[in-house]
Amino acid sequence: MPPARAVTVEPVESTSQLRRFAEVPFVLLGTDDRWSAGVRAHEQWRHDARRHPYFDRGDAAFFLARRGGQPAGRIAAHVDGSGSDAGWFGMFDVADDAAVTGALVEAAGGWLREQAMTTMIGPLTWTPDEEFGVLAEGFDHPAATGRAWHPPWYAEQLRTAGAEPGERRATFHVATEGWEGEVPCPSGEDPPPQAGGYADPALVLDGIAAVPDVSSLLAGASLRSAWRLARRARERVSDTAVCMRCDGDPSVLVPGLLAACRARGYSTLLSPWSPDGGPPDRVHQVFRFTV
């Protein structure tokens, strides 16, 4: 038998390395129809320490894993500057290879130990509203804007690497038909960034906000087609909205968002709460390591 090709992990420090880091999920998942690359501008913003507000108070380190010289995974370790001894990890993408996951977790945990952290929680980038967890249930449902799709081995390999299961967040598929009552006025706040220029200000309310689901529209989109697609999105090509921020009791806030979605012509809301108490169509989960 030929010797196994070694797993190596390198810190991402140069522009070319950051480009490879950003390409990892495309390389690993790009052929699966359930995966979506998301809004290009949002993904670039997430990686940019010069522009993202998280870096006004926090810090991060990026790591790229290779097996046999080929990209096989990535991870970001970050601290939020709050004074807590809990660190975080995010931007986690990995091949179906437990050794790669173990090497990435070790690299991220080592950096966090240097920052005097005692635990590592994630995947979470950079806040729970931007990216929360990996998919733990509902693998048949494709990605939606703000609801990433991951293969089952993401969660399985985190457990194998020694993680303890943490908080779970459910997403329900709720029809807007039949929702009556007064439509809340928009708050005037900035919309969540996940939809980029495709955002709908009418869905930004006090305490809760949603964006149109443009994941299928953007699948395979080139830079050349971006402006045309943005115009089409703003002309309401999507019939699904996704709740991206809920700062209170969902059972209190979601009905108003449903009314706003119905008034704008959305037929479905992907919601953190369902009025009928039925099962969620997908669940994302975070994990905790001791470092």
Provide a descriptive summary of the structure in words.
The protein is α+β, with helices and mostly antiparallel strands and about 290 residues long. Helix content is about 25%, strand content about 25%. The protein is built from 7 helices and 12 strands. Strands 1, 2, 3, 4, 5, 6, 7, 8, 9, 10, 11 and 12 form a 12-stranded mixed β-sheet that branches. It is globular.
The end-to-end span amounts to 35 Å
Q: Share of helix among residues?
A: 25-40%
Strand content: 25-35%
**Helix count, DSSP H or I runs of 4 or more residues:** 7
- Cα Rg: 19 Å
Summarize the main sheet.
12 strands, mixed
Structural class: alpha+beta
Spans of at least 5 consecutive residues whose pLDDT stays below 50 are none
**Element order: H for helix, E for strand:** EHHEEEHEEHEEEHHEHEE
- Rounded mean pLDDT is 90
Strands, total number? 12
Shape: globular
